[in-house]
Fold this sequence. Notes:
Layout: H1 3-16, E1 19-20, H2 24-40, E2 46-51, H3 53-59, H4 73-83, H5 98-110, E3 113-117, E4 125-132, E5 135-142, E6 148-153, E7 156-160, H6 179-188, H7 191-214, H8 221-229, H9 234-250, E8 257-258, H10 264-281, H11 285-306, H12 314-329, H13 334-348, H14 360-379, H15 395-409, H16 411-422
Parallel strand pairs: 2-3
Antiparallel strand pairs: 1-8, 2-4, 4-5, 5-6, 6-7
Amino acid sequence: MNQTLYNTYVQILKDELLVAMGCTEPIAVAYAAAIARNALNKLPDRVVIEASRNIIKNVKSVVVPHTGGLRGLEAACAAGLIAGDATQQLEVISHVTQEQIQQIREYLQQVPISVEFSQSDHIFDLTITIYHGKHSACVRIVDYHTNVVSVKHNGQSLMSKEITGKSRDSMADKSLLTVKDIIEFADTVKIEDVEAVLKQQISYNMAIAEEGIRHGYGANIGKVLLHTYGEKDVKIRAKAFAAAGSDARMNGCELPVVINSGSGNQGITASVPVIIYGQELAVSQETLYRALVVSNLCTLHIKEGIGRLSAYCGAVGAGCGAGAGIAYLHGGRYEEIAHTLVNSLAIISGTICDGAKASCAAKIACAVEAGILGYFMYKDGQQFVNGDGIVKKDVEETIRCVGILASQGMQETDKEIVKLMIQNSFLCD
């Protein structure tokens, strides 16, 4: 692997495996609100939120951490206004006192916060405008969760940057990812170049998975799997612990996670099953790191064509990425991993994203199952071939078709999902 490509792959992992506390869409709302409050330099007496439909979809039903169980855009916004530390970005509401939780609840009762659909063509577009008397501040975030493109005070620009349409503005070009190069990189990467981000991913994501197993969150999908099928089978544990991490995260757990593709659920799905298999197979720490490189980069490769937000469930790509990492742990390389990805994408593609909420954990379990089945299908001499539905002649073409399906083919599906979700809700007249 040439040095330029090697450096790019290292940077992709550093760019994408970030720490976040809480579902990233409501956290983006809290982040924008905290910046707006700083610009206004006082708490507003009126707030207007304009958000693209995928943001509304992903914030509507998920519990916002450090709010005492509150859900939705208004709660996320109020948390950012009352207790947000904008310097912490995706951990903007990591440190909230009990007094501030009560203040958030009182603020929501006293101050009107209106929510409107953004008329923007951007999939990720969020504008928060806050008012205090005749004074105002406005913050806009576009394309990804921390990409602040505009800050205004009383209509005067305090900060402005170009909207590039990229999922992240950085040197790391994810279009350079290929399955073959991902495996070569995993085999040859100097561990010290990736150890910090992967060690943090193991620590944080296993901690929230274990929290979900120990305590009651949401529909307790992780616990259901273990209670129903037992703990002896590593395949069950891999699904259960990944689901349990989402159980906790979607339902107000205040532990941080290391995200992938802008999503904590995808970060959990791409990592926890691989870690569980690594424990079962008693592999070295170095081998586990290399397998996590495979799972994370394959997840990012699949997600690149799909986009940050869509009607296509992001856990699908992460479950397939986990299958690739598990194949790597078993000694698989290009042929085994390519077939694992094709098989698993053929099985699970088409699962819809209807927002962040408790049922995400069940979708994660299904996605991990597809990833594992995709690998063991190939080991048993079975595979899906060119012409089986959306399966194409090779793994790169199949991944490309999934991206087209999600980013273009499912646009109308996405609109209908949001319509169904908001019927009889605050957004309807």
